[in-house]
Amino acid sequence: MGVEFLIKGLIVGFLASIPLGPVGVLCIQRTINKGRYSGLISGMGAATVDMFFALVAALGLTYIINFIEEKQFFIQLIGGGVLIFLGTKIFNTNPIKQIRKHRRKKNKLIEDYLSVLFLTLSNPLAVFLFIAAFAGIGMVTSNDSSLKSSLIILGVFLGATLWWLTLTFLIDFFRKHFRLKQLWWINKIAGVLIIVFGVAAMLSVFFK
Predict the structure, then answer these.
(1) What whole-number distance in Å separates Cα of residue 193 and Cα of residue 180?
(2) pTM of this prediction?
(3) Residue 190 half-sphere exposure, CB side, CA atoms within 13 Å?
(4) Could you tell me if 42 and 156 are in contact, meaning their C-beta atoms sit under 8 angstroms apart?
(5) Which helix (H) or strand (E) holds 74?
(6) Is residue 89's pLDDT more than 60?
(7) Which CA distances in Å does 203 have to 58, 77, 81, 196, 200?
């Protein structure tokens, strides 16, 4: 019976991670420029936050949900600013220097992990996605046991991890076919996309 909840959580975590928002674009760009470990570790930062949001949703931590609703304006502004900063940084990144740095093993995976973790935390509205998903398929009720909730949350983490593993593996598989000129364009396009996400996030707080 417990396996059922684990599988359902896995499905929710996997599907929730698929839409290629700014985190997805960032992970793809890092996989191409730095390698699969950078992309995967970046994705793990997002998976960690997804697990936290699933915990909030599954346990019905109303004081956290209320805080998110009350501070939504400022959180989205900060998140949008972070996206614009990251997008600008990627846009100006020289792929040759980044590849050389990666080859010299100076790439710090912990920085990749933490940057995406904080970026994903800046979009706490995702917690409502998990609330809707859990409620929609009857996974969470007021009588849920701690074991059931734990299995669901673990499943969400494993599902999100599976998605980032799949994505980075596929991107890395074709990575060797990219040339420096293509890498330059990928950085420009990824940077612009992330900046657009950031601007949209900031504007959305004024036009609701």
Answers:
(1) 20
(2) 0.78
(3) 26
(4) no
(5) helix 72-91
(6) yes
(7) 30, 8, 11, 10, 5
